[in-house]
Structures are given as structure tokens and as C-alpha cells.
Amino acid sequence: MIKLDTRLKMAADEVRQGKKVVDIGTDHAYLPAYLIENNICPSAIAADIGKGPLENAKKVVSTSKELSDRIELRLSDGLKEIESDETDDIVIAGMGGILISEILTAAPWVKDETKRLILQPMSHAEDVRRYLCENGFEIIKEKACTDGKHNYIIIVAEFRNKINDKNEAFYYKGLIQYDKSSDAQKYHQSRMASLIKKRDALKNAGQDVNDIEKIING
């Protein structure tokens, strides 16, 4: 049986029961294997842009007939080789926020009220939130965890076909700022510390810091 680390388990917990799933950037296919073994999903696509990661995934999937029958391995640049009717829940974990936004932008079919996005940006979460809010998605949940020395976040969103008029401060702070759990506050405070450091560097260089002040204090 596959046992996920804390970071991937947090993402797996947001996959809906009985829904088909695609895992973009799957690497070893641990997440799809976990979802299948625990009867959360009837089928899964484990996708990656690299042949090497898919070879790693093949080793995991081939360990049982159940996994090999229900998980398809697919070489894909983001969602480019995935069809809309092949998946309900879309997991994109372990990538930068800019890349995640680019992957979603290149797949307009994700704008579907029946689908769920489970996103785990390793950096630039503000770009993910900005994409979601400006493209008619509602961010329904954000969660954080600590795994080793690192803090991670997930952003769960569903399409509502309604543009969310959020300010720049929200893009940087998100819903996680309201979560009082220690992991969430640790993540949020770390992000704010980075912004304050950036502000101070700009200020020392004699540059205008009004915009970044609005984010910090917004």
C-alpha cells in the first residue's frame, strides 16, 4: 500500500470521492496509486512532461493489476494531452505558481463547473490566485502543512463563471491568512516576512514602495 508524505496527502484529501483524477507532474505516480488503492477514484491519469518520471511511475503502477488496470500513464506537457471528459479533479502539485497558471491558461476546458482544481504552488501562489480570480473560479479552500523544514499550501478551486474582484493583497495573502492553525500561520507569516524584506530592499534603493505597502497592510 502506498503511503503519502504530508504534502501529497494534503492534496489527496481534497480529491472528491468517485471522481476521475489527473495528476499533472506525477513523477512516481504515488498520488494516483494512493487514490486507487483507497477506492477514492475509479480511474486516474498519471501525466508528466518527462519520460524519466513516467518510467518511475510505471514501476509503481506495475506492482499490482488493480493499479495497472485503473491508472493510465501519459506523456503530456501540462494538460495539453488531456481531454476534458477524461477527468473530473485536476491535481497540479510541486510546481511554481507561474507554471501552474500557464498550464491552466493553455487548457480553457478547465473552466467547467463540474471540475475541481487542487493546486499546490511551491512559489508565487499569488499568480495562481490571480489567475483563478480573473478567470471565473472561486477559491473554496486553502490549507497548509509542514513537512520536514518546509511549509506547503494547497489551493482548491471550482469554476463559477463569475469574475472575482479581488485586490492585490488578497492574491498574496489568500484564504490562508484566516486559518488559525499553526501550519497556516507559519506559512502566512513566512510569506509576509518575504514581502517586508523586499519592501525594505526597495526602500533602501530609493524606490517607490507604495504598492508593496498596500499588499502588506491590505
What do you see in this structure?
By secondary structure, the protein is of the alpha/beta class. The protein folds into two domains: 6-166, 3-Layer(aba) Sandwich (Rossmann fold); 177-218. 40% of the residues lie in helices and 22% in strands. It is built from nine helices and seven strands, in the order αβαβααββαβαββααα. The chain has helices spanning 6-12, 30-37, 51-61, 65-70, 97-105, 125-134, 168-173, 182-204, 210-217, and strands spanning 21-24, 44-48, 71-75, 89-95, 116-121, 137-147, 150-159. It has a seven-stranded mixed sheet with strand order 3-2-1-4-5-7-6, sandwiched between helices. The protein is globular. The mean pLDDT is 96.
Give the termini separation. Answer: 46 Å
Most strands sheet: 7 strands, mixed
Output the structural class. alpha/beta
Q: In the CATH hierarchy, what is the superfamily of the largest domain?
A: Vaccinia Virus protein VP39
Percent range of helical residues: 40-55%
Supply the CATH class of the largest domain: Alpha Beta
- Topology pattern, helix = H, strand = E: HEHEHHEEHEHEEHHH
Give Rg in angstroms.
Answer: 18 Å
Strand segment count: 7
Number of domains as seen in the coordinates: 2
Number of helices: 9
Q: What is the overall shape?
A: globular
CATH architecture classification of the largest domain: 3-Layer(aba) Sandwich
Question: β content, as a range?
Answer: 15-25%
Give the integer mean of the pLDDT values.
96
Strand order of the largest sheet: 3-2-1-4-5-7-6
CATH topology descriptor of the largest domain: Rossmann fold
Which residues form runs of ≥5 with pLDDT under 50? none
